[in-house]
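Changelog note: in this version the structure field was regenerated for every chain. One regenerated record is shown below for reference.
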Amino acid sequence: MNRIIIRVVLFFFLIVSISYISAQSVAAENNEIEIAVLVRGPVESMGFPLIYPNALELWLGYYRYLESEVVVSFTRKDIMLPEEWESFTCNKIKGFSPDHESFFYKDTKWSVLFKFSEGVPLDCDFINIFILRLKYFLRDSSPDSPPLLPAILEIR
């Protein structure tokens, strides 16, 4: 039984790796499209980032994008934002930016925080595509289940 599980995990890793390599070669050929790949997640966790102290249930997604990592924190719990967080519009998406590397978006039933790698500025194209896809995945999902995070994003 363990051999079967190991083979399935290795097969999944192989497929994701091949998809990532193929996506990167397509992006290199066409400078207008960049690819973001979910490399880990959704991972259940506690304590929403940048809002202390708290014990909010959340789900983390780790994305590989433009040679850096974007960590996406998702929760269905209500969040009270600190007053010092500045209102910020990322293209047409209205949210908040506690610093220049994070963006917080609140929908009617859920919230998400994007944390870009240190020194990497906010990427509004990534944020917009992610939120659009997430809304699509969540429209029919159960509020008791983990969020369906997009596995691959094509950012134009």
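Spot check on this record: Confidence is low (pLDDT under 50) at residues 8-14. The helical segments are 2-29, 124-138.
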